[in-house]
## 1
Amino acid sequence: MIVYDPLWKTMKDKGFTTYTLREKHGISNSTVQRLKKNMPVSTYTLNTLCRLLDCTLGEVAAYVKAEP
């Protein structure tokens, strides 16, 4: 399962908020909600987040083995 826990730490470290993502960078509210709920997002979105935050994919998402 992909989780976005690293994203929230990276955003905090770089002074970003969900408001910043939505209002200044055009990330939709539904995409922000999907990230908060660890739901799938497109690789385009992941690429955009890495570009905006000037970080690696590992600073946005992590793989956690799901229990069967």
## 2
Amino acid sequence: MILVNGIESSEISALDRGLAYGDGLFETLAVVDRKILNWARHIERLHRGCSALKIPHPDVTTLEEEIYKVISGFNRSVVKVIVTRGHGGRGYTPSSTSKATRIVYRNEWPEDYAGREKSGIVVCIAQHRLPRNARLSGLKHLNRLDQVLASIELGQSTADEALMLDTKDFVIEATRCNLFMVREGQLYTPDIEFCGVAGIMRSIIMELSEDLRLKPQEIHLSTGELFQADEIFLCNSIAGIWPIVEIRPSHRRLPIGEITRALQRAIDSRGYH
């Protein structure tokens, strides 16, 4: 089921600015046993993004009602919420009378994700680079052409995911996940001041790491430092934590370490995943 502004439909106007300019935001939600996991964090990020792009905030109660409507009859779901600026006419400048478009729909839960949590994944490094733009960094905005191009590269490889660097060759994230590495018992994650998504699971792991006395640090991470890691893992709201067991084409092999496993247990036991 797809709801557009609360009405069951798979169509939006050709004049919608989300289609014309990628003028909007989205959230991808894990729903398990009719519970929207980490809902408060998702709605806070969505509202933060709306404020940054000056799009009216969607009503939280209305969104919840629509999410529960599209998941009716299912125990596990991946729900996507999209908010665009709505109709805007011709030109880049938004109309002051535009009304935001709200889209909510359900996808099947990916069955292969549990195996990746347990056995780990193989990654490659995409040639396409993420542009730096501090105004948009952190936002889950609709402009995802960089991820599309990197995913095309991924589709031509035998890897499970592709790591993405920025235009200064710092490691930022993967096409759909944030990244962490462990070195000498210390947890690190790339700094996303200039590009990258402020992931929900990323923020949860940062908080849990403090509880586990791992003293997480955000750093400008080079590929050289990445190859010196003892453990590396990816994370997002649907995947949870995916350990990286190999980086191609160098065929650098990595173990699934104790810290990675401890964090997996922590997010599961506390109901974050």
## 3
Amino acid sequence: MSVQSGAAAETIELLRAMIREACVNEGEPGSGQEIRNVRVLQRFFADAPIEMQVLESAPGRASLIARVRGTDPEAPVLGLLGHLDVVPVDPDGWTRNPFGGELIYGEVWGRGAVDMLYLTASFATVLREVALAPEKPRGDLVLLAVADEEAGGDYGLRWLLNHHPETVAVSEVLSESGGMRMGAHVAIGTAEKGSAGRLLVVQGTPGHASIPYGARSAAYRVGDVLQQLGAVVPAVELGELWDAFVSARISDADLAERLRDPVRLDAALPHLGGIAGYAYAVSRVTISPTVLRAGSTHNVIPGSGSIELDIRTLPGTSDDDVDDLLRAVLGPLSDEVEIQHLRGWKATASGTDTPLFAAIERAVEAVAGSSVVPIMAAGGSDARLFRELGVPAYGYGLLGPSWSYERYREGVHGHDERIDIESVELSLEALRLIVADRIS
């Protein structure tokens, strides 16, 4: 492997240091405290001529913008978008210290190792290499090491775009949600589903629980709505990325044919094993009840109740489309349910006809001998905020050959999260080629 062992070793040590800072984001304004990982990166960059700005949206909620300026103001400005926060852990589910950053048998253990501190560390390594190179690049290279990605970005990239747009202005972006293996291909994220949360409110007739006659508990109405939601599944909608996914991952010709048929697709899902959940998610709008409320006192029959829905949408799905779908799913109950909108965002996608995507294809082929397959992420990331601005953004990575999509999903937010050194080395080597391609 052509990547220098010194660079890989430095990246691994940086990753371990970032894990140990335990920048756990619980969704509260004071959590995260990403300033700790900002300080780690500042120390890593101390010997390099890099312009650094630390921007805090709230005390401790810091992001680092690190830039190497190029010689040509007309050249592309490549953004390397990495986040500094991690999700909480259940320590009882771990066999090692989730914030120990231990290196065990060629793997770095710890929360955030996969999501996405290994990439943030790799981005930092390549930025530092470019800064220390004898020749300046033609275009700017910018590390956007941001806070609060795990809770939606209000204290991170969203805040930066609203308050410091000139500081984070880039023309193209690499970020997370790529690199896993789809058969013989390497998956690169080009799209993400949207979020269109809804609150369903139902009414009943309150009363004293000791005399239920004449009352109508809203808890029963909540149950009726849940039963209806579980009985009706949104229709299959196969987008332009579906065929590429099936071609890359499914080798059985008969199964592939069934998956390409919207009528037969759901019956074929049980034959997909661990990737069935992903296939289900990206082939339709999904509706998941998550939070139920009815009543607050033991002896009072509740007069109202509510259901929070996590709804994930496909590209092109509007808010009106979501409301129409809900009314269709609820059927005869729709007149009894008030639909309120919760916070959300549109699905986003970047085309595969851009110079950056072509650079990714060339780099992956050169390093891994594999072609890439564009995929849609079922969840969301900060990359969507750039896509919303018309900036092409891709989920990058180059994980080792054993990293199927299923293994990747198990690592993201799961117990015993860890990344192997080989995957860090591969990602570094391909990233170096991509950066040279775009800014040299």
## 4
Amino acid sequence: MDRKMVRMDRNELAAQTAQRVADEIKARGVKVSWLCEQTGIPRVTLHRRLTGQTPFNLSELDRIATALHVSTTELLVAA
């Protein structure tokens, strides 16, 4: 597999993960500001992640999953 293909796959996974997190935020009826407080993730960082500008790292996904009462795996598997 060439590098361009791998990069597209990573970008797609990042976008799908961001969408999954956004869907969970909406489903739980919480505000992004609340999630920032609960996770310690700065608002600007969370915004960049949710808009797909930069991918989530595993630590961030773990903290988000804990705050939303879902497993980290659920955030990734759905993506």
